[in-house]
């Protein structure tokens, strides 16, 4: 398994933002280690699997990054310093509460004076107001670091690099790997140079290679003391728990939680499958609660992290 | 060819927004026919080709919809009523000038009083101010109708429906088909019901079917008097003009223009390949011009449309 991963990293190209992103991450970690913070590393959004070197087409995933972006705010609320590794253009913490078309209408209804517009926060005013207050604090204390990726290979290079940097935080680092990572990709050596041409009435056959499994390596070698939470999304109810349990195969004792859910229940119900408990825990949110399900998930996970830190080694 | 198209429409599922969208489009057309407007039908953004019925994965295209959204504003500037059929979440006219993260920072730097924020337009102030002025006029005169799609089949149903409605505008309708339409898709009958499962070290083979060519039918039957402009994007310079010329095969005399460009030159250079002129026209924009290349393209096309209307039948 490890050799598959090694050959992946030696044959694929590192993303152009790798060095700068890792340098910034290193600084961010130094800064908050001094402050004695807990760290949360969130990955969010879907990775692409390009079909051409000069990429026009790619295989993608429906993830828009809502789970990751929402969770980031709730981890920040719990006092964590958050590293947010997300798909470029995916849903982002804080800005997710703003809609461009609503803003445009507010702006066009406002009065403009001296390069300023009176901007009406509208019916969502109270919520946006408290979001802005939280955002100000996060900025002031430098609590959120964003790094972005597009393709599966960008993602894996950044995942490895950031994990290795975080390993020095040991148990204080919590990994929340919510990104929807392609199970398949086309290796660089097999990519067509230019846009694949269509020919009348000829089928296109694509051969995709399974993505090497990095979580076992991450768990056992890159960050062996940090607590890992991974995710499992399925559409078939009969597979969900089975596949979530299977996710613990080959990972170390720091891989404690799989957050599992069905596609159509994403906002309403998740199951926490735990490596160290027979019983899994259901988290159900009702529409009437006025809460986001991520608030409930993160409270539960922060407690698990707290207990994990308190365990004697 | 026509029978391939018929079998496509009889075997694929119409999008849920089809009926409402066509009813709204019909009203929009009635309204502006009375006002004696010219119509521009813009398609924008990439279509997806889902790989599962309960879609988790799909083949996509890098188009973000910048060309279409930018062009919409320039057509509105030329006095057209615009029907904008665009990929859900793609770049939109007017809002494309706003960045959520900049807005969040402006909001968080502003002073909040009575549910309002003093919103500083920042260094882009002048540009945003004039954009807001244009947007107000467009709203006041009801000049922009937006319809959205996600998958290739959504797109084709909406393209057919809107084209047939616009056919009554005859020469007054200008079609600007900038959407990046998948050349391949998986027919509904061949789609896996649930998320395709990955199995260790087994390749995934995908068989994709060529998308039926609808432009010949659109050109000859659905809207035979309206002026058609289509688009060709390539990454290989040696293919660009060849493929652009080939786009006129099987289309009617109303298909007059192909706007062709190389992926890496999108913002800087396009070639107008014309069915009725031997010489093609290059449009080159310099960074220093302070203009968007779409302004130049649309001026040229509006003139071609004007001449087309003036031709005796």
UniProtKB/TrEMBL annotation, chains A, B:
InterPro entries: CoaB-like_sf, DNA/pantothenate-metab_flavo_C. It comes from the Eukaryota. Residues 165-278 form the DNA/pantothenate metabolism flavoprotein C-terminal domain. One of its GO terms (molecular function) is catalytic activity. One of its GO terms (biological process) is coenzyme A biosynthetic process. Belongs to the PPC synthetase family. PANTHER family: CORNICHON-RELATED. This is DNA/pantothenate metabolism flavoprotein C-terminal domain-containing protein.
């Amino acid at each position: 398994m490890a050799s598959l991963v090694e050959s992946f990293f030696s044959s694929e190209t590192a993303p152009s933002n790798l060095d700068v992103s890792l340098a910034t991450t290193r600084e961010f970690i130094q800064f908050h280690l001094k402050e004695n913070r807990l760290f949360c590393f969130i990955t969010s959004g879907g990775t692409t699997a390009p079909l051409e070197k000069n990429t026009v087409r790619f295989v993608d995933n429906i993830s828009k990054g809502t789970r990751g972006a929402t969770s980031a705010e709730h981890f920040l609320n719990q006092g964590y310093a958050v590293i947010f590794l997300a798909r470029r253009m995916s849903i982002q913490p804080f800005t997710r509460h703003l809609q461009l078309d609503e803003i445009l209408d507010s702006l066009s209804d406002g009065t403009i004076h001296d390069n300023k517009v009176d901007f009406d926060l509208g019916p969502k005013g109270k919520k946006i107001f408290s979001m802005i207050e939280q955002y100000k604090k996060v900025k002031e204390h430098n609590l959120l670091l964003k790094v972005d990726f597009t393709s599966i290979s960008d993602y894996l290079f950044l995942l490895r690099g950031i994990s290795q940097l975080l390993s020095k935080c040991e148990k204080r680092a919590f990994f929340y790997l919510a990104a929807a990572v392609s199970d398949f990709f086309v290796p660089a050596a097999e990519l067509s140079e230019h846009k694949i041409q269509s020919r009348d009435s000829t089928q296109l056959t694509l051969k995709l290679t399974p993505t090497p499994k990095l979580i076992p390596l991450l768990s056992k070698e890159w960050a062996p003391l940090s607590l890992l939470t991974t995710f499992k999304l399925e559409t078939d109810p009969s597979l969900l728990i089975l596949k979530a349990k299977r996710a613990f195969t080959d990972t170390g004792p720091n891989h404690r939680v799989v957050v599992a859910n069905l596609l159509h229940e994403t906002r309403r119900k998740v199951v926490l499958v735990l490596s160290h408990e027979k019983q899994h825990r259901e988290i159900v949110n009702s529409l009437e609660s006025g809460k986001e399900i991520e608030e409930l998930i993160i409270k539960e996970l922060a407690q698990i992290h707290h207990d994990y830190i308190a365990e004697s080694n």
